[in-house]
């Protein structure tokens, strides 16, 4: 009897933690544009992209993708919520056909530099705030990303 209750309790905990990741991802993955309000490294503003254009996806079926949009330049990223929606990850999508763009386009360089794991400081329906000390381009430096829903 105690074993079956323990198994039911463990199953409930596992489903609840998965649901938080999925719920947070669904809130962020709402297709459309999220405007950059702030992109900074150790408090210094970085020439920020205009938007992240999020594509619709199911976090359990596919890799979630978005476009890092600087207006004239674009770069593709994968994104994901983990750890009960307390961690957010960004990873640059490397397209071998566009490798030359890495050296000439700031959007490509930024998606590489800002790839990493972020602590979720705020996740509301229309705003997100992420902080990291673990990005590829700025290891050990505080990186802050503030996004607001645009359309």
Concise structural overview:
The protein is of the alpha+beta class and 151 residues long. The protein has helices at 2-28, 101-104, 106-113, and strands at 32-41, 44-45, 51-54, 64-69, 74-82, 87-92, 116-123, 127-135, 139-149. It has an eight-stranded antiparallel barrel with strand order 1-3-4-5-6-7-8-9.
Q: What is the string of helix and strand elements? A: HEEEEEEHHEEE
Distance between the termini: 52 Å
Radius of gyration: 17 Å
Count of helical stretches: 3
What does this structure look like?
Residues about 1-15 have low confidence and may be disordered. This protein has about 150 residues and is α+β, with helices and mostly antiparallel strands. It contains three helices and nine strands; from the N terminus they run αββββββααβββ. The chain has helices at about 1-30, 100-105, 105-115; strands at about 30-40, 45, 50-55, 65-70, 75-80, 85-90, 115-125, 125-135, 140-150. The chain is globular. An eight-stranded antiparallel β-barrel has the order 1-3-4-5-6-7-8-9. The N and C termini lie far apart (about 50 Å). About 25% of the residues lie in helices and about 45% in strands.
How are the SSEs placed, and which strands pair?
Blueprint: H1 2-28, E1 32-41, E2 44-45, E3 51-54, E4 64-69, E5 74-82, E6 87-92, H2 101-104, H3 106-113, E7 116-123, E8 127-135, E9 139-149
Antiparallel strand pairs: 1-2, 1-3, 1-9, 3-4, 4-5, 5-6, 6-7, 7-8, 8-9
């Amino acid at each position: 009897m105690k074993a079956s209750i323990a198994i039911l309790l463990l199953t409930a905990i596992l489903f609840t933690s998965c649901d938080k990741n999925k719920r947070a991802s669904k809130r962020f993955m709402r297709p459309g544009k999220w405007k950059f309000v702030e992109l900074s490294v150790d408090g210094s503003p970085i020439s920020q992209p205009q938007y992240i254009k999020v594509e619709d996806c199911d976090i359990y079926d596919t890799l979630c993708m978005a476009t890092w949009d600087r207006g004239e330049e674009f770069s593709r990223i994968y994104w994901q919520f983990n750890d009960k929606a307390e961690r957010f990850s960004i990873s640059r999508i490397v397209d071998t056909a566009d490798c030359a763009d890495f050296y000439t386009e700031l959007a490509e360089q930024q998606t590489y530099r800002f790839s990493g794991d972020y602590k979720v400081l705020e996740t509301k329906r229309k705003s997100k705030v992420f902080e990291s000390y673990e990005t590829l381009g700025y290891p050990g430096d505080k990186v802050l990303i503030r996004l607001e829903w645009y359309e």
